[in-house]
Fold each of these.
Amino acid sequence: MSKSTSIDKPIHIILGGTFDPVHFGHLRMTQEMLNRFPTAKVSLMPAAYPPHRPQPGATPQQRIEMLQLVLGKYPQLSVDTRELERDEPSYSVVTLRNIRQEVGDACLVFLMGTDAFEKLNEWYEWKALMKLTNILVVGRPSSQLPTTGEVADFYHEHSIESLDELPQHRFGKVGFCQMPQLDISSTYIREQINQGFSPRFLLPDGILDYMNQHGLYGLNPKS
Ligand code: ATP
Ligand code: MG
């Protein structure tokens, strides 16, 4: 693991996702970020589901509440609700433009797993992201950094030598962060429940309690 970096400007790290539900894969990524960048502010930013994709099991409000439940006691971690406050799914580039205006010339880092990064070229105006933010890619089981194609070329064009360099760049760089990989996904959690199995120990107990209380993902509501 690379050592942490001392910096004079705050680093804003954003993990976008659907968090349906939030699990230890997401949460461990945030801690790995704080271990490397101790002064960072890390936001988890739930997205609205695009209309053509299967709709989430939890409502936007429930997804926010689950995130707040688990992040509430950690001051450096927060929930950014802006994408769910709009009625329609918003493009990441538009959201990041908005965030850039708020953070001024701070270092901005958009965090994503390799499964998301390998499809980056399907995102609206994806190359424009580089004028707004850095991207940090985290290894995820069953997917890898692309070695050929547009996204691979993009990675090579913008990649940094070492993660320690990242805080010096406000935007425009892509890094890869190796960390112990957790083969956990929200899909797997929903599938386990669907098959009548418990998802316990894949996510915080408090989240599972919330899911039980609200009868999410096919669980029977409990009081
Ligand atoms: P789903 O199965 O519903 O797609 P998910 O587990 O992939 O859920 P998302 O909310 O889609 O979770 O993920 C948000 C971001 O977090 C994505 O960039 C994704 O790559 C990353 N991520 C999620 N889980 C992990 C994990 N276990 N390891 C590394 N990255 C992860
Ligand atoms: Mg996903």
Note: Residues 11-185 form a domain with the Rossmann fold fold (CATH 3.40.50.620).
Amino acid sequence: MNKKTLICKFWLACMTGGAMAAAAVARQLPVPAATAAATDKVIADLVAASRILADLNVMDGFGHVSARHPSHPDHFLMSRSKAPATVTAEDIVEHDQDGNGIDANGRGLFLERYIHSEIYRTRPDVMAIVHSHSPGVVPFSVSQTPLRPVYHNSAFLGAGVPVFEIRQTAGMSDMLIRNAQIGKALAAVLADKPVVLLRGHGDVVVGPSLPIVVFRAYYTEVNARLQQQAIALGPVTYLEPEEARIADKVNEQVVMRPWDLWKKKVGEKQPSP
Ligand code: MN
């Protein structure tokens, strides 16, 4: 393919709205239509997830959600550094396995992208990740009381919720997961669980899809608040591990119901400037 043909193809791809396809043409990679469509679908769901998590007050000006790249499974898709409620498809950057933005084009990336790169590296089952400073969970990250499931919606917490102590890896730090070494240590503490708390910081939630990870991030926040209310009333009866395991299967079957509702609600709002 000569340079002129390449530029023409790149321009044509841009004009037809396939930004990801255009980037692939620029790299001279064949992009089957089905693959480009799958990537566009993940990008659309990622934008929705970002806005939903802001709408549900799991995120505020901070926080990020990512998805494993559908055609480059060692890469992931995530917004450039931007407030979650304002994210659009044009803000989504493909990150490589080390957290480098391969189509960032000078755009600033999240400092804590190593949360995502190191978890995707060690957890092949994980397809989506949320990091937030979900306010209800912070007390559980600094106290001796473990976060445990008080009701069926948060049954996934029955697997146990570890707390990452950053001092063990980084000593005195700014508390951020700002390099691969700290990200790797965090992924080791998460191990095979769906949620890990970050002491004095927030949490990281992982899942097999964007709807499920959004569901888990939201109900982790709700459970934290309900658990504090229950503790204030006296001794608490938590879900048994077996109840949690059975109940979580149902949650995964019905997850599209709240996802569709949340997506509709954020879709009806005017896009943020
Ligand atoms: Mn953070």
Note: The longest helix spans residues 210-233.
Amino acid sequence: HETPLILPSLLAADWSKVGSEVARAEEAGAQWLHLDVMDGAFVDNISFGPQMVGVVRKASPTMFLDVHLMIHRPDHYLERFLKAGSDNITIHVEARYDTSVADTLKRIRAAGKQCGLALHPDTPFDAAIPYAHMIDLLLIMTVVPGFGGQPFMEKETMPKLEAARDYRDAHGLKYHLEVDGGIYASTAPIAKRHGANLFVCGTSFFGPSDARTAMTDLTASVA
Ligand code: DX5
Ligand code: ZN
């Protein structure tokens, strides 16, 4: 979990040309791509579903697809996201489940994929402790989930990120620490200092016209 990675978030890409946007991220050196699934119920916005994951998978057979499910009943929809080509599936601890968080994490791993748990800015780190030994990734949301382009909630979320890192290191665990929301070359170093190694970048990556320069600047900020 030491190597910092910049993850372009498809939410901020130009969806009129998804295939070439994925290629642009790939050519800029992205190894992981972040896909935000929103259901209009768990969050106040609707984005896309498993079909889009399949489109991205088709556009790039090698990109690691990090799928962030901001939806209720992720366990009900799980097979569809697995089948579409997800490499990591992150579920929210605050969502409603037909089964349970633990059962859903186990099913993702049983399918041979990585699993993550996400925490809303209002949710304390303690909520993740029961699952800490079962996850590959812990996502500390640094904005209220639902929309790109919001400001980084430093004061509200950095103590939690640090707690997540300290707990991991004290217990010999290995989960990645991912931050998502308001990450720029100015804020990524703050998150890095508090333990993050995966940096989701929507506006800061897809906003500028030159993706290579955006990637270089973001990568340098956490080097
Ligand atoms: C927010 C999403 C983020 C979003 C980040 O609900 O989970 O992944 O794309 O966008 P920026 O980087 O613009 O804050
Ligand atoms: Zn996200």
Note: Residues 9, 34, 36, 68, 180, 200 surround zinc ion (ligand 2) (CB under 6 Å).
Amino acid sequence: MPDTRPRRTFAVISHPDAGKSTLTEALALHARAINEAGAVHGKGDRRATVSDWMAMEKARGISITSAALQFAYRDHVVNLVDTPGHSDFSEDTYRVLSAVDSAVMLVDAGKGLEPQTLKLFRVCALRGIPVITVINKWDRPGLSALGLMDLIQEKIGLRPTPLTWPVGEAGDFRGVLDRRTGDFVKYTRTAGGATRAPEQRLGADEVGEDDLQVWRDAVEEHELLGLDEADHDQEQFLAGRTTPVMFASALQNFGVAQLLDLLLDLAPAPGGTEGVDGSVRAVDDDFSAFVFKVQSGMNTAHRDRLAYARVVSGTFERGMVVTHAATGRPFATKFAQAVFGRETTSVETAEPGDIIGLVNATALRVGDTIYVGEPIEYPPVPTFAPEHFVTASAGDIGRYKQFRRGIEQLDQEGVVQVLRSDLRGDQNPVLAAVGPMQFEVVEDRMTNEFNAPIRFNRLDYQLARRTDAAGAEALAGMRGVEVLQRSDGTRLALFVDQWRAKVTARDNPDVMLEALPAGG
Ligand code: GDP
């Protein structure tokens, strides 16, 4: 029987170190603890939900790849799609954001709005994804709550509408005032460890002597906020004009249950999605999904290749034969998997909002649509303007075959953009990246996974503009510019600097030179 409970599909966006991994684990463990009431989970379980798998990720302490975490909470199923934190992986992160219905913006109370948070927020704004803000690490000294609200308003242009307000300043966390009920949610240190919510709900008249002074301060600020039109408005939130705010300590588990409740109560459910032809596929239509990420090398024991797809409409049933929109060919889904971090299990059915992993999906590329019934094709996942360019060549010419296969694979996964031209020939593709760390990933995977050492030569180009066949012809032979073709067919004109791009555009008004969306 398909599990048709309502879904919530979201991602956490944050600057590295804001506490995303800590929060992710706390959310999953809390939901699990509720579901398996009385069960005790130790440290070992905590690790099992961690989604980073590459040795390199461990060494760097960052999460490079994305996976989805699914858990049941109350009468819902929650899908948390993991995003990598490092700015060099922004392309990957942007793709992931195409698969969610809402985002949780995690802010370090001591640091305020950091660059990566701002970038990611802009993508959410661009895509109209509603954002819930969580001010984390309130157990540590940090900025003032009102100061943080000003920052959100000023830097991201969203009106903050706090749902809770801290009782006690950062570093002296007594709990929060629930602005909807007026209750005091008191922070308590309980013995339950990581799986227990250390929260106790008290009426305003039950606030203890010790907390009375800070409680009164919180009430005063809460009333000020009310005058300032900072109360939650569901319509404004869904329209991307306001952001509900709550205060938490992911490490202490405080606010974790509140956040889950908030997601269920306020965050949007999966909805109908528009195809490239403008038609809308409703969630209860026939099955359709789009691929937002392709990955391989998760299991070194055997070669595997996983395409992550988000179900848009209908019920997915393992074994069903779907149509691959890009080729019109049938695609068998016998080996569909649920992808929860390191663990993979077969998935029997999935509903709109869920993420499925399709094994050995060699034909599937990022952005592809699969469907049954009436044809549908969803808009491509955006690619971003590359700013770093190298030529790649096989480090060991005897292993050229492996080199070529590796490049092709990494291209299909979208690890880097691969550009070619007749002039340069096939043996020395140009690799283009939004951030230079993408090249490190290429080097690491080429060496360890494909056993094909690779050599890079830096190119002096700094930016790319989209052009067409006529543009390629017109620009051929000009100084400071080179036109190459990306594997998706897009022609990119690479320029040595901004100045050269401007002059070329001025002198060649008929040549198409389009800016690409800015990435990292
Ligand atoms: P990520 O890079 O965003 O995934 O951040 P992590 O979850 O790895 O957290 C970074 C560091 O901040 C770790 O040392 C965490 O223990 C710590 N941390 C996370 N949340 C909190 C919190 O609420 N309070 C305090 N004091 N530390 C936290």
Note: The chain is about 25% helix and 30% strand.
